[in-house]
Amino acid sequence: xxxxxxxxxxxxxxxxxxxxxxxxxxxxxxxxxxxxxxxxxxxxxxxxxxxxxxxxxxxxxxxxxxxxxxxxxxxxxxxxxxxxxxxxxxxxxxxxxxxxxxxxxxxxxxxxxxxxxxxxxxxxxxxxxxxxxxxxxxxxxxxxxxxxxxxxxxxxxxxxxxxxxxxxxxxxxxxxxxxxxxxxxxxxxxxxxxxxxxxxxxxxxxxxxxxxxxxxxxxxxxxxxxxxxxxxxxxxxxxxxxxxxxxxxxxxxxxxxxxxxxxxxxxxxxxxxxxxxxxxxxxxxxxxxxxxxxxxxxxxxxxxxxxxxxxxxxxxxxxxxxxxxxxxxxxxxxxxxxxxxxxxxxxxxxxxxxxxxxxxxxxxxxxxxxxxxxxxxxxxxxxxxxxxxxxxxxxxxxxxxxxxxxxxxxxxxxxxxxxx
Length: 420
What we know:
Layout: H1 5-21, H2 41-44, H3 62-67, H4 143-146, H5 219-222, H6 227-234, H7 261-264, H8 272-281, H9 306-309, H10 323-330, H11 355-358, H12 363-366, H13 379-382, H14 400-404
């Protein structure tokens, strides 16, 4: 007869007890947790223990999601709309902001680390060769590592990292074969130092003479008087309607289509039809900067586009105000707008889920998302002042940011979100 697996495990444990400590104990004691170490069912999905030792506790573990009835969404009898951006609201099993996602499935919660612990967020966890959060991605292949604010091992854009023969960021591309290294000195072609007066030197993509102008953008090439160079450079211009709307930087000057004045500005040689085309799609008026459309096709809609954020055109019905002033009222660039639970700039990300808040250059704004971010004080000062500086419901060392910031030395002991 073949015994069930649980019976074999149980017999083995009983045998161990009998052989090893029979004289001292003499009988079997029921363990506190399940013998098999599984995390399924009501009892083991609410005990606060990582029973199967996979680093995920209770409803964080997909085993509980599938086998228990404790981890689904709760529908209140009377719904009350609330911004879903605090540790409490991101762990209450309710879709508080009515966007179709609740708790840690809501992208506005995913940056509330106290509630939604991503377990790949520091250098140690991002170099251990394990899929700690069980999402199918290991170490630097995991978004949590590549974009972790305290992760430095997944960056491959420095001269050292781009020349060490290692895949530092885990994207399966090494050194200069990695797009992140494109602008690294380690991957730049070496200039010959020769004057650019030959077709070879005027078409190699290198600033050979070191004057900061490359190939056909260098007068040394365009005024060399060499027919082959003249013909080559004539074919590289970006000053026709076709070349100004083809999505290619034809003249290689770093400016694409209508972003190139040779397309958009007749005073810089742009043909009338190309300039008219560029004017028709320009995203700098109030109408085009508030329609939630990327009118100029540069990947940045409305006030997320510099052409809007810096536009001097009129803001209708606001005397003396410009489109730039309008953008200033909706961009998530203040502490208050980074804590109001609203996607003010309409880019799909609210508060600290928005890079303009989470990675703000203004220290006062960034402090809305980082308890420990200093401003005239130190990270340690902010993590021991008994204040909830970022208003996320967690104070000092109970805040994930303080607990894991390498610059903070006052937070010792067990850390929130520490792997079990």
